[in-house]
Amino acid sequence: MKKNKSIMIVAGEASGDLHAGALAREILHSDASINLAGVGGTEMKKAGVKLIAHINDLNVMGLTEIGGKLKSVMGVFFGLLRQMRKSPPNLLILVDFPDFNLLLARFAKRYGIPVMYYISPQVWAWRRGRTRTIARLVDKMVVILPFEVDFYRRHGVDVEFVGHPLLDYLGNVPSKNEARAQLGIGAEEKVVGILPGSRPSEVKMLLNVMLEAAEIIDQTLPGTSFLFPLAGTLHRDDLGFVDKNRFKRVSIIEGRTSLVMSACDLLIAASGTVTLEAAIIGTPLIIVYKLSPLSYYLGRLLIRVPYIGLVNLVAGECLAPELIQNDANPEAIAREAFAILKDKKKVRYIKRRFSEVRKSLGCSGASSRAARLALSFVS
Fold this sequence. Notes:
The protein has helices at residues 14-30, 42-47, 70-86, 98-110, 130-137, 147-154, 166-169, 176-183, 200-220, 257-263, 274-281, 293-302, 310-315, 330-341, 344-360, 366-378; strands spanning 6-11, 35-40, 50-54, 91-95, 115-118, 140-143, 159-161, 191-195, 225-230, 250-254, 266-270, 285-289, 322-324. It has 379 residues and is α/β, with parallel strands linked by helices.
């Protein structure tokens, strides 16, 4: 009997699970006979991937935090090795999560299994020495940011740009006026969104600072509305560290993040993918981020890019002000907010450049194009 072709997919965090789930659906849409297995979460499981392990078993933010889950992480790793030896897949697809995935790629290479990497590690920002490892171990690097193509080609990596999957997820976001109508907000109101991140640790670091900035903004621009779209990874119980009086002027909205972002005049947001979401939607933003003192010090030594915000990196200029560490204080946030909210010419320029950023991200269908590349290895 002829054995069905198989692909192993490994994602280590929620965003990777989202993109890998979309990729898996496209692969099975093209060839339903392929067996998909790997490490992921709800999205991959819903798409038809048999989970060997769950991303919760790998849920660490970096090597400095891996100690408490080392046994679980190593259990997942050796489980994948056993599976690859017992029944080698036709292709291994790695999704971001580089510390774990690049080590896995070493063994895949040893076992003669082709490796496709989808959603590049941010080696262009730090630990550039990894590019030599990638060039040696990865058969195809599939990237979603336009500037990554030249970077990888300079380092001898076989690379292809497929566009950003956010363009698929955000393709039907309502316009600003439509979003406000759905949320019951007047067309002429000043509205500011507060997005402190999707991890509880980020929220604890940033939310109070953002809420204090909102109080200052409200004092200077009375009548401003503040919206806090609660990320799907968070619960209201995660906000127990905040004085309830701080939420008097803030509406917490669950499960409608992109709608809220579209309704706002300005976003105060943690650094991350949300900065590209803002550009795609067309809402100006201020980027705020804080780290532990040690992490910040190490970051300054290691990071080799001029900005931390993805939107600024893609644009090649600081369209979204970046307030990092000690600069991430309520007064500075409010000052940057006033500079945007009171300057219509500046807002028009930001929106025009955001439109150009969106165009540079390609067109919808990133998951479909990535699936075609994956299938080329197993046909």
